[in-house]
Each structure stands twice: as C-alpha cells, then as structure tokens.
C-alpha cells in the first residue's frame, strides 16, 4: 500500500507587520513555492522523506531571504554561524551541525553526519573538516554575507536591540512508503553571542521525527525550545498522552509561552495530518499534498 505524500515547510515565525517587509512579499511566496516544488517532486516520484526534506530546505538556504544559508543573520560580533539538523523517522537516526560557515548547505552536512558517522552533532571546524572530507561543497565564509541582513544587524547593534525575527527554515515530509523525516536550518538568532547554539541543530528541541507519531520542525526563541524539548514534547504528548498532532503542537507552544517564549511549529503524521501553529502572528509556511498546494504568511491567511 502506498501513502499519499505530504510536504510541509516553514521559513520562520515573526511577530507582525513591523517586522515584515511587504516589498519582499512576492519573493517570499515564490521562494516558499520553489521549496515545495523541489521537495514534493521527489516525494511524488517515490523518493524518501529525507530526500524531500533536504531538497526543500536547500532551496530555502539558497534563496537568501530567510535566516538560513545565504540569508543567515549576524552574531553580535558581525559573523555568520550556521546550524542545521535532520532526522529520519523510520530509523530515528539523526545528524546535525552547529557553528559552521564554510559548508554551503548546512542541511546536507547534517545529513552526512547522520549517514557517515556514529555521531549526531558536529560543530565548527570539526564539522567543516568532516564535510570537506566527504566532498561537500565548500565556500568562503563571505558567501554567507547578505547585505540586507547586515544592514539589519547594524541597526540592531546601534540600538542595542535583541532580534525579534525568527526566519529559520524547516521541512517535514511523509513519503509514499509512510516514512517521516524532519529537517531545520538556521543562522540562529540575530545578535546572538558568538558560539551560541540554538534549538535548530538540537534533536528533540528544533527537530524530531518518529514514524509512529510525527515529524516536527520548529522556529522561535531557541533557548525556550531547548528548555522544553519542544519537538520531542510534541512526539511525547502524542505517544504517551495519545494526543492528536494539533493539540500536542499547541500544548508544546503553550509550554514555551509559560516560560515567556514564543515561536512556531510545523509537523506531519503518518496519516498525513498537518500542524501549522505559531504564537507570533505570522509564520512563513507552505504545504503540498496530492490535493493541494499553498503558501501563507499571516496566521489569519488561508494557504493559497
Ligand atoms: N530557533 C532559532 C534559534 O534560536 C531561531 C529562529 O527560529 O529563527 O536559533
């Protein structure tokens, strides 16, 4: 029996119109659609959920709009430090990288860690050396320099402000064989301390996948996602409390809010149920299934 594939993506959760540049509206939506198409094509042709997730995330890393890959934000000392993770719901194998700036596609590096080592998380120079040994595309750190994000950084620095935007990207997929996968990629929080690692490369915090429950990718204030094991929390609420995906997702976000944090979660179950929830008012998101394809940004907006 084959399952109908599903791909759900996000490009981060933001607080509202003041954090949103309407001049980029069409570009944002086009990038989300490209990501959906890249990932879904693989799933439609019978490819594994992991491939669908990786392809969808790579597209978002390349577009330079979101906080991942070429759109990565800056640390408080003006550098880019990228994090990513991926998890296979069938085997519960996982891979991740943190604090890198020389590997072109962090999500692919994460997958290599999963497939070629017995480790889960490699950081900094060790991750980069490993990627190089396995033939991953290397870039000069300046590849990640994004003028728009740099201007944003200068402004925040001048006003000694903390970041309010969370434009991390992620994808979750269900493939024709009923397997789930999840992946997340980010430049982290703007103005983060150098060396800071958020939830995105932490399995169970920003990413989780288990074929018996769900695949989850998160975005928001990573510290709260780590402290509540947010992605694992959704899985655990489903597994041990028999909650449905949407209720579990809402509960995980409520647990984050209780601590004073906010953000969003996307997810999918083996039955194809979808989660698209956030507590910030806006979340770049998209869904593609056999029946429909749509993207949306504001939470009161239908997928279209
Ligand atoms: N969760 C990410 C982090 O804390 C930020 C984001 O979602 O944009 O690194």
Which helices and strands occur, and which strands form pairs?
Layout: E1 6-14, H1 25-44, H2 49-63, E2 82-88, E3 94-100, H3 106-116, E4 121-123, H4 124-133, H5 147-158, E5 169-174, E6 180-186, E7 207-210, E8 214-220, H6 222-227, H7 230-241, H8 245-258, E9 263-268, E10 274-278, E11 282-289, E12 293-298
Parallel strand pairs: 3-4
Antiparallel strand pairs: 1-5, 1-11, 2-3, 2-6, 5-6, 7-8, 8-9, 9-10, 11-12
Helix pairs in contact: 1-2, 2-3, 7-8
Residues 12, 67, 166-168, 186, 188-189, 198-200, 206, 219-222 line the site of aspartic acid (ASP).
Description:
With 304 residues, this protein is α+β, with helices and mostly antiparallel strands. The chain has one domain: 4-Layer Sandwich (Glutamine Phosphoribosylpyrophosphate, subunit 1, domain 1), CATH 3.60.20. Helix content is 33%, strand content 25%. The chain has an 8-stranded mixed β-sheet. α1 packs antiparallel against α2 (49-63). It starts with 5 loop residues before the first strand and ends in a 6-residue tail after the last strand. The mean pLDDT is 97.
């Amino acid at each position: 029996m084959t399952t109908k594939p599903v791909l759900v993506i996000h490009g981060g959760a933001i607080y509202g119109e003041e954090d949103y540049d309407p001049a980029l509206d069409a570009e944002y939506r086009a990038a989300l659609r490209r990501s959906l198409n890249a990932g879904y094509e693989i799933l439609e042709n019978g490819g594994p959920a992991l491939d669908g997730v990786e392809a969808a995330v790579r597209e978002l890393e390349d577009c330079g709009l979101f906080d991942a890959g070429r759109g990565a934000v800056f640390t408080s000392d003006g550098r880019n430090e990228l994090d990513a993770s991926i998890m296979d719901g069938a085997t519960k194998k996982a891979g991740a990288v943190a604090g890198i700036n020389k590997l072109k596609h962090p999500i692919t590096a994460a997958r290599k860690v999963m497939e070629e080592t017995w480790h889960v998380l490699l950081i900094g120079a060790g991750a980069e050396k490993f990627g190089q040994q396995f033939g991953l595309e290397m870039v000069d750190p300046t590849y990640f320099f994004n003028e728009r994000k740099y201007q944003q950084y200068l402004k925040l620095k001048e006003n000694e402000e903390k970041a309010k935007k969370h434009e991390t990207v992620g994808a979750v997929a269900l493939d024709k064989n009923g397997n789930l996968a999840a992946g997340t990629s980010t430049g982290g929080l703007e103005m983060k301390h150098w060396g800071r690692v958020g939830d995105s490369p932490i399995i169970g915090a920003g990413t989780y996948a288990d074929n018996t429950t769900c695949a989850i990718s998160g975005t928001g204030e990573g510290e709260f996602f780590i402290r509540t094991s947010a992605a694992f929390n959704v899985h655990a609420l489903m597994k041990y409390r028999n909650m449905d995906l949407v209720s579990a997702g809402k509960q995980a976000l409520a647990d984050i809010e209780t601590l004073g944090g906010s953000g969003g979660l996307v997810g999918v179950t083996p039955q194809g149920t979808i989660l698209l929830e956030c507590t910030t008012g806006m979340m770049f998101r998209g869904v593609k299934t056999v029946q429909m394809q749509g993207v949306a940004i504001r939470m009161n907006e239908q997928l279209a």
